[in-house]
Write a structure and sequence with these properties.
Strand content: 35-45%
Distance between the termini: 29 Å
Helix content: 10-25%
Order of helices and strands: EEEHEEEEHEHEEEHHEEEEHEHEEE
Shape: globular
Oligomer: single chain
Strand order of the largest sheet: 12-13-14-15-11-16-19-18-17
Largest sheet: 9 strands, antiparallel
Number of helices: 7
Number of strands: 19
Length: about 350
């Protein structure tokens, strides 16, 4: 968050994140003992150098290790790896070494599921290969995953969201049965944010991250989270929150008025995500936002995630776009909202 891009003395930082989520499995008999958290910290630090960021702090419990990075966050649990990075980071370049580490230290031999997603960049010209264009990213992913598929949801000439994921091979050899687990993810990507609220996330306004978290009301969005937060100098903010049962919440804020951006993400189960979305909107007051909801068949929000399909207005925001699709193990709903009148 503290990094700066300079072009002709113009300050710019790309808040839009690249989000990589991988679920691992194995055909070996060591499935029960396989665990991504066995990858040594030093190896994770080397991995982040490839990505062009570093680990700042972390919290952990029996279910999940949550790392705040210099550019966003990383979450490591038994068989799921999540890497979310902003700025000019290069997360896809860590894929090959990560697959080797997962086999060498964690005991995982296969990728069961993979999701790479991001909103369209504000300044794609400042990105580093292979992230200058989605076609570049897809080309790299295709070399590693022959059964991959790329999608774009939303208006390609305006605000849109890219996704790369795996399609099941017709005759794939079955791996050892994984314990089926409910899973869901809500992500909200916000732009054109309230300057007064954004000023909280500067060293001029707050002395430290704890003060910013409480002043903004971030600790109240989803209560009872163990929070690890960081306020960058001179501005910018990141936080991870974890629960005892391994659920997470993460927020990243680029507060500068010319390119303000906030992302919110959680996998906490809920009978309705409408309340959480409303809490987030009340906290940050964006002009526009994109929301995505993933849910598998066992998720408690499987049916209620569809409420986005019928939610034409949410407070001061009017829905401009909505799409639904089914991919491998998940249903996905995408929606885009603008403050009314836009």
């Amino acid at each position: 968050m503290a990094a700066t891009e300079v072009l002709n003395d113009e300050h710019f930082f790309e808040g839009v994140e690249k989000l990589l989520e991988i679920w691992f499995t194995t055909t070996h008999e060591n499935y029960k003992s396989a665990d991504l958290r066995r990858i040594p910290r030093s190896k994770l630090e080397s991995l982040m150098k490839v990505v062009r960021c570093e680990i700042i702090s972390y919290v952990k419990n029996d279910q999940i290790d949550a790392y705040v990075l210099s550019e966003s966050s990383m979450f490591v649990s038994k068989r799921r790896f999540i890497l979310k990075t902003c700025g000019t980071t290069t997360p896809l370049l860590c894929l090959e070494p990560l697959l080797l580490l997962a086999e060498q230290y964690a005991g995982f031999t296969e990728v069961e599921d993979l999701y790479y997603s991001r909103k369209n960049f504000k300044r794609p010209d400042l990105q580093v290969i292979p992230h200058q264009h989605f076609d570049q990213e897809v080309a790299l992913l295709d070399t590693l995953f022959p059964d991959g598929a790329a999608y774009c949801l939303g208006a390609v000439n305006k605000d849109c969201w890219f996704l790369y994921t795996l399609n099941p091979l017709p005759k794939r050899l079955p791996s050892l049965p994984n314990p089926e687990e409910p899973d869901q993810t809500l992500e909200i990507m916000m732009t054109d944010l309230d300057p007064e609220i954004m000023s909280i996330f500067t060293k001029e306004e707050c002395l430290n991250a704890t003060e910013a978290t409480k002043k903004a009301g971030i600790d109240k969005i989803i209560p009872n989270m163990i929070i690890d937060d960081f306020l960058f100098n001179p501005c910018g903010y990141s936080m991870n929150g974890v629960t005892k049962n391994g659920c997470y919440m993460t927020i990243h804020i680029t507060p500068e008025p010319d390119f303000s951006y906030v992302s919110f993400e959680t996998n906490i189960p809920s009978s309705s995500y409408k309340e959480i979305i409303s809490n987030v909107l009340e906290t940050f007051n964006p002009g526009k936002f994109t929301v995505t909801v993933f849910s598998n068949q066992l998720s408690p929000i499987k049916d209620t995630s569809r409420e986005l399909l019928f939610l034409e207005q949410l407070g001061d925001w009017q829905r401009r776009d909505v799409q639904q699709c089914s991919i491998k193990n998940y249903d996905l709903v995408y929606a885009f909202f603008c403050r009314f009148p836009s």
